[in-house]
Design a protein that fits this description.
Helix content: 55-70%
Number of strands: 0
Number of helices: 5
Structural class: mainly alpha
Radius of gyration: 29 Å
Order of helices and strands: HHHHH
Largest sheet: none
Oligomer: single chain
């Protein structure tokens, strides 16, 4: 894992520099810099627009009593997309733009979930909505009593909450 991170830290800047040089040769320095600035602005705008949508969907899922797993994954993808779009470079911009496409995020999510489940390193547990916790169930009846209504007569059973003999 450390070698992968090291490879990315060295490889991505080298690739970006090579693409910068080639883009500068083809479209010129001014246009190259303009495209980099425009992608950062577009990325920020897309991040805000889609991020608010994901936040609204997550809130709706919570209101329904569901875990917003897909929305959390979408939020993480959008965060990563925003980071790489703000990083100068054409390759990172392409990755960021791809992460803004919802069907590609779903494909990525399904692929990652399949890999995580296939690894056998993750276990899920918990209870769904409406499931019992395993504690005691207390069944009883009640009757509304008005403040001015006299208390019912004691039937000799006593009050278990106040009689501590």
């Amino acid at each position: 894992m450390a070698l992968i991170v090291l490879g990315l830290l060295i490889g991505v800047p080298v690739i970006e520099i090579a693409v910068f040089i080639k883009a500068g040769e083809i479209i010129g320095l001014g246009w190259t810099l303009a495209v980099i600035v425009l992608t950062a602005i577009a990325g920020t705008t897309l991040l805000r627009w889609q991020g608010l949508g994901v936040l609204a969907r997550a809130q709706a899922a919570l209101d329904r009593g569901e875990m917003p797993v897909a929305e959390v994954f979408d939020g993480l993808c959008l965060l990563l997309a925003g980071i790489v779009l703000l990083t100068p470079g054409f390759v990172t911009d392409a990755i960021g733009i791809l992460l803004f496409i919802p069907p590609l995020r779903r494909l990525l999510g399904h692929w990652l979930l399949g890999r995580v489940l296939a690894s056998g390193q993750v276990r899920f547990s918990g209870r769904g909505p409406g499931q019992q916790t395993g504690g005691p169930v207390i069944d009883g009846e009640f009757r509304e009593v008005a403040d001015d209504e006299p208390a019912p007569p004691d039937n000799g059973g006593g009050n278990p909450w106040t009689d501590r003999s």
